[in-house]
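FAQ: What does a ligand-bound record look like?

Like this one, built around adenosine-5'-diphosphate:
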Amino acid sequence: MILTVNCGSSTLKYKLFSGNVSEVRAEGQISRIGGPDASIRHIAGEFRTDKKARIRDHRDAFALMTEMLHTHAGRSPGDLSDIEAVGHRAVHGSDLFTESTVITEAVIHKLEQTIPLAPLHNPPNLTGIREAMKLFPDVPHVAVFDTAFNQTMPEKAYLYALPYELSQAHTLRRFGFHGTSCRYVSLRTAEMLSAPVTNLRIVVCHLGNGVTVTAVSGGKVADTSIGFATLGGAMMGTRSGDIDPGLVFHLHRNLGMSLTEIEEMLYRKSGLLGISGVSNDMRVIEEEAAEGNARCRLAIEMFSYRVRSYIGAYAAAMGGVDALAFTAGIGENSPRIREDVCANLGFLGLTLDHDRNTDTVHGQECIISRDDSPHHVVVVPTDEEKMIALDTCALAGPGPVSDIKTVKEK
Ligand code: ADP
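The answer part, i.e. the structure of the complex:
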C-alpha cells in the first residue's frame, strides 16, 4: 500500500492507496490542528466517521491518523506493515527540485533552505515529513513538489524583467503553483485523446479558490499564470491576481495604507469576493447573479474574461492549442463558467458543445467540445493525491504501475 500525506499549517490530509494505486483503501482529513475542536473525518470503505476532538499539534494528528488507519483501513484492515512507501505533498521546492525525489537528510536540508520562500507552508510540510518518517521509519518517503512541474518552464517565461543579478542572487522568478494538479490533468488529457503528451499543446485551467492557467507544450510547462508568490495571475476567490505593481506604491504613499493592510487586501479581500461584495464561493455568486445582482455578474464576467485572456496569450506562446482542460472546484463543476471562458474561442478551433458541457457528471472525465471542433475541450477531475501516489510508487514502491506515465524510472 502507498500512503500519501498532505500536511498544511493546520490540516493533515491522507489517503491510503492499494499497492498498484488503483484503489483508495482509506482517506481522511484532520482540520484545525492546534485548536480545541479539531474536526476529524475518516472514510474506509463503508466505514465513515466525523467527529471533533482536541488535537494539540501535528504529532497528535499523525498519531490519530495511524490509529484510525489501524482500526479502519478498508478492505485490508489493521496491518500498516503493508505500507510500502509514503508520498508527501511538498508545496515549495524553489528551483532546487525539478522532479519528485526520495527524501534523504540532504533533501530535508534543502527543504529547510526553501522556508523563506514559503514561510507559511514549508514548516508544517517539514513537520509532516519528520513525523511520518518517525512513524514509518523502515519505508522510503518521497516528496512531490507543487513547484517541480513548473521548473520545466523556459527562462524567458519564468524570469521577471528585473535586474538580472538581483533575480539570480535571490531566486526572484516565477515559480507557479498547482503543478502536481496540472501535470496530472495534462497527462490524463493526453490519455483521453489517445495522443502522446509530447505531441500536444494543452492549456490547463485549474479553477478553484486558487486559480492557475498553465500552458503545457510537449509535456513541459511553456508558461503559467501564478508567479513568485501565490498572488499574481488570473483572478481568484479572494486574491486579486495581476495588478500593476505601481498600485501598491499609490495605496501606500497616497492613500496611507500600510504594507500589511495592502497585503491583507490583496490576498484576502479581493478577487471574486472583492468584486461581488458577497462571497468568494462561485456557487453563491452564480446564484446571486441569476437573481440579478449586478456585481456578481461583473465578478463572473471578469473571472471568465481573465482566464480567457490567458488562454489567448498561451495559444500565442505555443503557436496554437490542441486541447483545453478544465479542472478543480469551479472548472469541474460550473458549466456556466466553462461556457463563458470558451465564448469567442472558436477562432482557436475550440468550440463547446452546449449539451455536453451542461450534462457533465460530477467526478467524471469528459470531452465537452463539439465533434466538429478542430481541437478539444475536456473536463478532468484533478487528483493530486493519485499523482503523488504514482510518483511514490515509481520512485520508491513496486515501480511504475500507472495508466499514465509519471516520473522517470529509477
Ligand atoms: P481550493 O483551491 O480551495 O482547493 P476547490 O478546487 O475546492 O478550491 O474549488 C473551490 C471553488 O469551487 C469554490 O469557489 C466553489 O464555489 C467552487 N465550486 C464547487 N462546486 C461548484 C459548482 N457546482 N458550481 C460552481 N462552483 C463550484
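Follow-up question: can I read anything off the structure? Yes, for example: Confidence is low (pLDDT under 50) at residues 405-410.
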